[in-house]
Structure formats: structure tokens, C-alpha cells
Amino acid sequence: MKRSLARIGAAAAAIALAGTLAACSSNSNNSNNSNNGANPPASQSAADDGAKPGEDAGFEELPLGDDVFVGPLKVGGVYFQPVDMEPAVSTPAKDSSMHMEADISAVADNDLGYGAGDFIPALTVDYQIADKSGTVVQEGTFMPMNASDGPHYGINLPKLEAGTYDVTFTIKSPETNGWLLHTDEKTGVKGRFWQEPLKAEFKDWQWDPTSVDW
């Protein structure tokens, strides 16, 4: 009888232990599932936190001034560290003060077939940098190019002394480069390209080479 009771007691203890282990395992799984829900895998989190294309190009663009609206165009002028380009057609990065860009896009309701914010291709964009006495210190023509943040017109500028300058972009019509517009009744656009060059001016731009880290 004592042996039977002992066996019964041992069996009961074993059952109780098994129940405790099962409960612990269940709690552990629930805890892991809860944590997985709150903290997704690192790869997923990194993907969720990653910048969308065009949001972060990996460099800081400094403005020449406020955006300029002229004709059907929105014109932004920016500059940042000199860059290497292919094919090499301008001043090498090591010999440059900066890379300057003209970001040119279409305004809404432009009647030329461009969507609002679309990059405008086939432009000839000249630039001129003049000091406050009116003396032109640098001038030339931007090149069309692509960067990680999209297409633009730009160039590496040769060494430029510190000072306050007026920067002017002169923008010729795509028509001068052979860009055509549909004019028929069914597929044509209402507008026509500008005949005289458009100008975007950024006055009193202050350049100080010691204020940048390139």
C-alpha cells in the first residue's frame, strides 16, 4: 500500500512538473511573439526606416537663394562639394570651389505638356557670376547630367574668391535644341515655347570658402 501511494505521489508530481514546463514554454512563446510584433527583424526595420529614392541624396545642397518662378518654369539654384563626372568635360573636382546646379522643373498648368514638377530636358542654361561692382568673374554653360537625386543642369566651378555675388541663369527654349511640340487638334498642346531667353536671378549670394567642409 505504501508503495502504491508512493507511486501515485510520484506520478502526480511528474504530471504537475510537466504542466509547469508546458506553461513556461507557452509563456516564452507568447513573449517572443509579442516582442517580434513590437520589434521587427533588423532587416525589416532597416528597410522601413530607409530613405525613399530622392529623399536623401547623401549630401547637403546649399541654396543660392529662393526658388525663382519665370514663365512655365520653377528654377532652383544650389551648390555643394565638387564632384567627379563622366565623361570628364569640366573642371576636375580637385581644382573646383563647388558644384553648382540649376534645378529646373515645370509649374502646374504650363500648357506645354509637362506635368507639375517634371524636369525640363533639352534646355541650354548659361550662368553668370558677377561681383557687386557688376564685374563678371565667372560665366559659362551648365551641362545636363544625372545624380542620385535626379537630372539637372550643373558644372564644377573653378576657384572662386570669397565675396557677395549676383548669380544669373539664362534659360533658352528647348525649341533651340530641336525639341518639338504637337500642335494638332487631337494630341496638341495649347502653349508654345518662349522665344526670348528667360532669366532667373539670385542676388546677394554670399560665398565663403572657410564656411564649408570640403
Automatic annotation (TrEMBL):
Entry keyword Signal: yes
List every stretch annotated Disordered. Answer: 26-61
Q: Which Gene3D superfamilies match?
A: Periplasmic metal-binding protein Tp34-type
Span of the signal peptide: 1-18
Q: Which PROSITE patterns match?
A: PROKAR_LIPOPROTEIN (PS51257)
The UniProt keyword set, sorted, is: Signal
Database matches in InterPro entries: Metal-bd_Tp34-typ, Tp34-type_sf
Bias type Low complexity, positions: 26-47
- Of which family is this protein a member? Belongs to the UPF0423 family.
What's the protein here called?
Amino acid ABC transporter substrate-binding protein
What is the source species?
A: Pauljensenia hongkongensis
Q: What is the lineage of its organism?
A: Bacteria, Bacillati, Actinomycetota, Actinomycetes, Actinomycetales
